[in-house]
Amino acid sequence: MARRRNPDSLSHILLRITLAAGFGLFMWFVVAKVITRTFTTMQEDMLARNRAAQTQVQAKMKEAQAQKPAQPHTIQQSQTMSPYEAQRAAEIEAQRTADLQRQIEQQRLKDAAWERFYIPPEACKHPESPTRFDVCSSREARFRKDFERRWADGEFAQPNA
């Protein structure tokens, strides 16, 4: 009669423990990589948005600075212009400055309205997987599109442009 091994022998128990620990470590490594990649992707997305916002602000600042050097030139021209022409040039410059300030204020109001309009769900504040991140990004894009349409239709408090 052949001798059967006892499945509960010490070597089998140690083998099972070793395999379970190895599998557990492998799964921990995979989950850690997925989470790290998800947060890296989110961070890159946030950085891209911040860069876009910074670029927009810098463009407006450059535009405002480009208008400032025009003022001394306008003053210099006013010496050769008639009083009426000088007054008209000053009015145009004041109108440009007011328009820029109105645009900046309108953008601020629009950003504030967006913050009130879109509040991400808890699951989207800290997505746990790339799939969740994609779902949340898609949802935010749909809400942004709806918001832009409604903003253009004047459904939110905004100054008359």
Poorly predicted residue ranges: none
Structural class: mainly alpha
Radius of gyration: 31 Å
The biggest beta sheet reads: none
What general outline do the C-alpha atoms trace?
A: elongated
Count of individual beta strands:
0
pLDDT averaged over residues: 82
Helix content: over 70%
Please report the distance between the alpha carbons of the first and last residues.
98 Å
Helix count, DSSP H or I runs of 4 or more residues: 4
Task: Work out the strand percent.
Answer: under 5%
- What is the count of distinct domains? 2
H/E topology pattern: HHHH
Region (Disordered): 60-99
Keywords: Membrane, Transmembrane, Transmembrane helix
Biased composition (Polar residues): 73-82
Transmembrane segments: 12-31
Please tell me about this protein's structure.
The chain crosses the membrane at residues 12-31. Residues 60-99 are annotated as: Disordered. Residues 73-82 have a biased composition (Polar residues). Keywords: Membrane, Transmembrane, Transmembrane helix. This protein has 161 residues and is mostly helical. The chain folds into 2 domains: 12-117; 121-156. The protein has 4 helices and no strands. The protein has helices at residues 10-78, 83-117, 122-125, 130-152. Helix 1 (10-78) packs antiparallel against helix 2. The longest helix has 69 residues, at 10-78. The radius of gyration is 31 Å and the shape is elongated. The model has no long low-confidence stretch (mean pLDDT 82).
